[in-house]
Description:
heterodimer, A: alpha/beta, Rossmann fold, seven-stranded mixed beta sheet, globular, B: mainly alpha, 12 helices, 0% strand, binds S-adenosylmethionine, transferase (chain A), Fibrillarin (chain A), Fibrillarin-like rRNA/tRNA 2'-O-methyltransferase (chain A)
Amino acid sequence: MEINLKSIGDGIYTKNLDPGNTIYGEDVVETEDGEFRQWDPNRSKLAAFVKKGLDYIFEDQVKILYLGAATGTTVSHISDLCPRGDVYAVDYAEKAILKLLKNTRNRRNVFPIYADAYKPWKYSQLVDQVDLIYQDVSHRKQTEILKRNSSSFLKDGGKVFFMVKSANIDVTEKPEKVFEKQKKKLKGFNIIKEEKLEPYHEDHLAIFAEYNK
Amino acid sequence: MDGQDIVEENFYDKNVSNLVRKNSIDETEEEREIKEKYSLKKLEPEEKKQCKQKIFEKYIHRYEDIKKDFFCELSEKKTREKLRQKGDSIIRSINVLNDLNKSLGLLNQSVEEWASIEMEIEEAKKEEELDEESGSGALENTLEELESLKETKKSIEEYVEMEMNDFAPNISEIAGEILGAKLIKRAGGLEKLAKLPASTIQVLGAEKAFFRFKRKGDSPPKHGLIFEHPYIKRTKYDKRGKIARKLASTIAIAARIDYFSGKDKYEGLKKDLERRVKEVRGN
Ligand SMILES: C[S@@+](CC[C@H](N)C(=O)[O-])C[C@H]1O[C@@H](n2cnc3c(N)ncnc32)[C@H](O)[C@@H]1O
């Protein structure tokens, strides 16, 4: 049983790596194993994925490239889950980065990067090879972004979490159609598990896959 | 690669490769120093191992801190740079808007005069029942151009509104996007506005009146640009000072939130201002 992740009541909780501080007003509980923060599936797509049956657990020392970090809601929980890992957190919205910097100031395993994920060469000098890419970007070309970053940074056999929001890609098309089309484009990725994130997030598909170069 | 990329490459090369690429503690200065100090070479292999482990434990934290600090500094620096650019772009569009307003004021007046005279001529022609082709179309063209200038003005305003809501959401909420942008322009940027005291913000844009007051002993200006704000415009003259003071101090707070914290709209601010306005107006 992973010590950094707990089920308490209906909720899931992660062990706070920055005790005394919260990020988005989440619930905090003291346990015999330390302080735990509630991981809200309505706020975090990864929490929703876990709620819907994902049983993958981060290794403690995992190196992660996180694309679309925003203000750090999900980043903070991933940071909780791998205290000895590295989370390179990319976003291109200035205000989001400023908040992310504040929110993760005391988290030594989070490294904020202000850059456009569509142009991985702009941060290639900052990031080494990673074991995992987590992507949740509100961008029309999100599939292309995943492919570019995977080929630049992801090790062979590395894993990806890909949160697809159909409305970002094509509002006029039915979500199912958009998902099918994007999945076809994912050559080199073996899908291990996929799940729609209703009722937590409408018209979102979460994909967990392995990458083979 | 464009110029920007090359600049960044060099920047990274200098700053990053020294620090970040060295993932192994073996390569750091500290370790080399310590090696010398403890003359690792003289130690037995087992001792060597233990010593190395100690060094590693002692310095891995240092290394991680440096790395963390480095990423934070770099990201903050680049973000601030970009925000400054965005601020500059807003300031420039406000300059254009000001010029456009002045030109439109002038043009409107002279074109109107021209149009009214043309109309009189037309009337006269009609009375004399002359049926000749009138004018060269110059007036019509001018009127069209004038309309298109007004459209241009609208589109610049829309641009400023959109940018301001992203760039300075709190100032936009309190002062309105256009007035907010004018204040940023007057101050010389968001950073400068965020560092001005409320009393200065209150008279920002009233520099001329302020000068008169200094020189000729006129009454001091109560408010500058913020006079445009509906809260002041729609308040009786004798109560404007109080509202201007409150408005200026609220804008000062909004500017600080926008510059320092990057927070989205902060609800309490507007409510507090509205309460004060009601109080002063006494209804
Ligand atoms: C839905 S939010 C991510 C929320 C976050 N993953 C969480 O769960 O806490 C999407 C983010 O993607 C970012 N984004 C969109 N396009 C991007 C790009 N090309 N490069 C970097 N970030 C991008 C946006 O700025 C936004 O912050």
